[in-house]
């Protein structure tokens, strides 16, 4: 009988206490596992150290097996990552930040787990995308996550206008993210490309002490000072009016 693949959320950054963002049950289950799949083994160990502070790990940290799954992992290697679970061992897929398999390379592993009849159990934790939708005041009944927009300036403007048109037509909130050091360029492109009445939300460092969330029209953003979001994880949202 195969083991269970637990989808383990992580914090969205350095937080004062793990209990502020991760339920007791999540920490307890995580502490009981000795096999993990993570985007980066080093940061996964740092996360397990935080868990260990409140819930002693089942094994010494150096004895816990951590396999890496990231953008460089070939598709043919996924089956090997599931081998311990097929042998009856429980395992955890842990995200770098937020929830696994959402804006995260773990989705393919989860799909393969289903194909092999491995039970998949998602655990509760912070998702920057849902937190941003909740706090934006934009349409929470219909929304779409679009990942990263093009880095080329002209292509980015074209894509923003396409998303704004779709948003206006379908009354659908559009979400996207950017590499943190390019946040200012993204906001400038949004303000320049969108109609004056289009609502734009900038949500930064969600769930962290430095969290900031602000929603204004494009016209209002043009007159406002830029948020303190340089090199900080940020979710951008728009709703065409």
Description:
The structure is a single chain. α3 (78-86) crosses α4 and α6 crosses α7 (183-193). The strands form two sheets. Strands 3-2-4-1-5 form a five-stranded parallel beta sheet, sandwiched between helices. Strands 6-7-10-8-9 form a five-stranded mixed beta sheet, sandwiched between helices. By secondary structure, the chain is of the alpha/beta class. The chain folds into two domains: 5-122, Cobalt-precorrin-4 Transmethylase, domain 1; 128-239, Tetrapyrrole methylase, C-terminal domain (Methyltransferase, Cobalt-precorrin-4 Transmethylase, Domain 2), CATH 3.30.950. It is elongated and about 55 Å long. The protein has eight helices and ten strands. It has helices at residues 24-32, 41-54, 78-86, 107-115, 128-136, 153-170, 183-193, 218-223; strands spanning 5-8, 35-38, 65-68, 91-94, 120-122, 143-148, 173-177, 199-204, 212-217, 234-239. Keywords: Methyltransferase, Transferase. One of its GO terms (molecular function) is methyltransferase activity.
